[in-house]
Request: fold
Amino acid sequence: MTRISAGIVAIASLLSTGAFAADLAPRPYTKAPVMVDPGYNWTGFYVGLNGGYSWGRANTSIAPFAGILPVVPFASFRQDVNGGLAGGQIGYNWQVDRTWVLGLEADMQWTGEKSSTSLTTVGPRYGAFDTGLPNLLPGPDFNAIASQTATLSYDLQWFATFRGRAGVLVDPQTLVYGTGGLAVGDFKYTAQTTTSVQVFGFGGLGTTPVGPPRVLAGAATSSSDTRVGWTVGAGIERKFSPNWSGKLEYLYMDFGTTTYFAGTVNQADVSFHDHIFRAGINYEFNPAPVVAKY
Reply:
């Protein structure tokens, strides 16, 4: 009888506990906390410094001397306008997803790109007066040879670019990108042309110099101009902390053709393009943490 009573009490206790649990409200659902990836986020503003070297090429064509003396035109020639460069950049990146990064960047560079050259042409022998002016009459008393020398210099003093960037993340820290856009450069061009005439005699076949050469020096000319062109290039950038990154970059710039005066009345058409290699460092302001979606 005692065992039966104990069993009845145990069953009643279980039933009362179940009824009490049924009266409790269901446990509220709690969303798992957002996971923060300890990786790198490329989105944000950045500034930086850079330095490198530039290999410029100025291709020049000089129009023939528009005068009465028979001189040979200057052949077209190329000047190597090389030098170091240094400057800074500012930009903004958007990390679209775990693979793609888009951005805008502007930079300004001081350059030491300079070049100077001297050219000389020698014309044919012609019948002349004793002054060196051509004598078209039969049996001239003298003959002469005219030569012309041009001293030219060409400098790229500074340039700036305004470019878009698009790249792919080969890993969370390393961006490989292409870039292109507008280029603006400030150029300085100086030139002086000198014409000299050596008279010989006596007679049209004489070979004895008659006095020193007559030198006709043209006025030195100098001009500075700001030219607009285009640029395209590629680079690689790697973060070594959430805020700091380093980059290597190549740019090609083309500024088209501009006309100058190469002293006196010689017109010069100069085209210019540039190859740039540089290294830089960037600081990104307060990059946001990478938020993983689960």
User: Anything to note?
Assistant: The first strand starts at residue 35 and ends at 37.
